[in-house]
């Protein structure tokens, strides 16, 4: 490798993509093409970066398999940042195997980080954790150690393990500060803000207050019945009742829990759960049926008593309390906004893949959000990308795909 390529690589490693481009912008040999591609990616021109990296990989060919594999890893990282989650990962896995077999363990570990982060985005936390556990982090270069800690923090945050997440982020910040890499420091600070801003609202005894992820993680106790409106579950300690497929039941239960220890009138229950303007006898009959179904679902924890005007929840143990865990902001399309709140540009196909629904459903939801000014897009056709700046004042970790705590 000549001195110009070495200088450009060092400029990229120190966070100076413009300095790297200034050295190799007029060269078209494979090494220069690869460095130009990485520099363009750092500057946000992902399409041009992908083209340059593909050209570099073809130019390296089978005569330089390690260099070609590094180009494939760099292209996979661009796909991750641009949220192209539908791409085939066979090339990345083949490149990782090549790097490991040829002794380039640092770039092989970087490939594992990319795979793990992609799995985290789609909620496959166990598989991501398994990939990370196979990395010998102690022998990685400092910046890759910081990236490793960031990946660990991302998994821990999704699992609501805030102690592990904070410890990992502290290590990552220490490394990034010591190496004086502003881009890595900004990435760590972004992850830390998620832990330091309200993640949900807790409604209890008729009062509402914002809470952090730390407090959310401590909520499931034997004395507290949680009506989780972020994941549509009822939870007490380690017992979970899923009601995502029964929206009417959950709506009624949430109203009763929000008013506890007071009651809710029959007319209010009918109007909210059944979207009726006025409650007639047919609505009241349906309400009695749905209340009976709720009683059967939650009879282990609480009973529902009829009052003169409506219904009220009554814990079987008088020492127990009832609380509602509500999203930070009410409205439709919460999980969709949670994904877009990371500030990255997503395709509708990637959003559909992550949320497990049809692309047409996602497109309708995006059009609805765009008409309300909550999201914006650029590009046309298959190149269209959707994004929104993070909402100030709260994080949306509870709405992201992933397993429930304790399952």
Automatic annotation (TrEMBL):
It comes from the Bacteria. InterPro entries: WH-like_DNA-bd_sf, WH_DNA-bd_sf. This is Helix-turn-helix domain-containing protein.
């Amino acid at each position: 490798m000549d001195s110009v390529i070495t200088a450009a690589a060092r400029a990229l490693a120190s966070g100076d993509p413009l300095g790297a481009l200034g050295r190799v912008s007029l060269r078209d040999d494979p090494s220069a093409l690869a460095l130009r591609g990485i520099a363009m990616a750092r500057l946000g021109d992902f399409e041009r970066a992908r083209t340059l990296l593909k050209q570099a990989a073809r130019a390296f060919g089978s005569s330089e398999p390690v260099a070609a594999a590094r180009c494939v890893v760099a292209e996979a990282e661009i796909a991750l940042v641009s949220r192209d989650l539908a791409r085939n990962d066979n090339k990345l896995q083949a490149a990782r195997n090549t790097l490991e077999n040829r002794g380039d363990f640092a770039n092989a570990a970087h490939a594992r980080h990319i795979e793990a982060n992609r799995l985290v985005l789609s909620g496959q936390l166990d598989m991501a954790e398994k990939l990370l556990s196979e990395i010998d982090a102690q022998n990685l270069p400092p910046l890759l150690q910081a990236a490793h800690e960031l990946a660990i923090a991302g998994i821990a945050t999704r699992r609501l393990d805030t102690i592990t997440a904070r410890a990992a982020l502290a290590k990552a910040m220490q490394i990034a500060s010591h190496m004086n890499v502003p881009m890595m420091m900004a990435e760590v600070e972004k992850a830390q803000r998620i832990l330091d801003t309200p993640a949900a609202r807790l409604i209890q005894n008729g009062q509402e207050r914002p809470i952090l992820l730390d407090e959310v993680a401590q909520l499931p106790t034997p004395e507290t019945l949680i009506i989780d409106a972020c994941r549509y579950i009822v939870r007490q300690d380690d017992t979970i009742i899923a009601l995502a497929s029964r929206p009417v039941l959950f709506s009624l239960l949430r109203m009763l829990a929000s008013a506890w220890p007071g009651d809710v009138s029959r007319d209010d229950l009918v109007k909210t759960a059944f979207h009726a303007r006025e409650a007639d006898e047919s609505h009241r009959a349906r309400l009695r049926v749905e209340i009976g179904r709720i009683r059967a679902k939650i009879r282990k924890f609480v009973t529902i008593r009829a009052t003169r005007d409506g219904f009220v929840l009554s814990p079987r143990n008088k020492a127990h309390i009832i609380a509602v865990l509500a999203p930070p902001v009410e409205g439709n399309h919460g999980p969709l906004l949670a994904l877009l709140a990371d500030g990255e540009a997503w395709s509708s196909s990637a959003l559909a893949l992550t949320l497990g629904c049809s692309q047409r459903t996602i497109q309708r939801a995006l059009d609805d959000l765009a008409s309300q000014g909550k999201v914006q897009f650029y590009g046309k056709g298959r190149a269209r990308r959707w994004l929104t700046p993070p909402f100030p004042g709260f994080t949306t970790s509870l709405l992201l795909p992933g397993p429930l705590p304790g399952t």
